[in-house]
Amino acid sequence: MRNAVKVGELIATTDNAAAIGEKPQDVVFAPDNLTAYLTARVTFLEQLAAGAIPMHIILANFSGDTSWTRYVAGIGQVFEEVGLRCPPIEGSSESNMPTLQSGLSITMLGEVQKRLPFDRDHLSWYTYGLPLVGIEILEQPEDVAQLQPIFRAWREEIVQQVWPVGSQGLQAEFSRLFGHHQVKSSLDIEKSAGPCAVILLGINPEKEQLAQKLFTRNFEKCQSLEQF
Questions:
Q1: Among 134, 164, 165, 141, which residue's Cα sits nearest to residue 151?
Q2: Which of 45, 78, 90, 130 pairs with 108 at a CA distance of 20 to 30 A?
Q3: Which three-class secondary structure state does DSSP give residue 205?
């Protein structure tokens, strides 16, 4: 599992954001609902990577009481995009001490879904989206991998494996999947993909044409090179 922990019968995934938001001393200014959306998006994608769908959400809000409603709205947008009912959101806000910068953490608890078994080595691997970070995410939202086609393809088992690419970049995630092999791509394989702006998708080879109809932008087949 990628960045997921099994807790009893549930899968726990988490992501956080700091110094991104609406406070004067934040490094990146962004609406609170957008910050929560991008953070929840990563956490949701990690659930899919573990073959699970979220059933409970825990929100830790370090930005003050006024941010809570905006954070909840951003989380809800993730589930609206994929056509799922948003799970119950519990948690707490830091209200005793005023903070100079924004901060939040989102944890999702999900149930593993029954899916067909697969072998990663026998899937066709594609990148979806462009490696973007920080202000690039705000300036190029159309180049961020979109949730709706990812979830649809995963649910229909066109995509067998979802593998988010984060701050360590495409090559680091490819190595986690396949060991010391280099990936060949037109993308910058070392650049941070921020809040999973790029997703590695392991696709059933018999359904590649269906995938190409779903993913119409920034969708590229990977090639693995020799060990390094």
A1: 164
A2: 130
A3: helix
Instruction: Report which of 10, 78, 76 is spatially closest to residue 42, judged by C-alpha positions.
Output: 78
Q: What is the DSSP string of 175-189?
A: HHHHSSEEEE-SS-T
**Strand (E) or helix (H) holding 32:** helix 32-49
pLDDT in tens, the chain (228 residues): 678 999 999 999 999 999 999 999 999 999 999 999 999 999 999 999 999 999 999 999 999 999 999 999 999 999 999 999 999 999 999 999 999 999 999 999 999 999 999 999 999 999 999 999 988 998 999 999 999 999 999 999 999 999 999 999 999 999 999 887 888 999 999 999 999 999 999 999 999 999 999 999 999 999 876 554
Its sign, for the CA torsion 149, 111, 162, 159, is negative
For the chain, the domains span 4-112, 120-227
Six-digit token string for 127: 């990148």
Separation between Cα atoms, residue 24 and residue 61, nearest integer Å:
17
CA 166 centroid distance within chain: 8
**Among candidates 208, 17, 190, which has minimal Cα distance to 105?**
17
The pTM score is 0.94
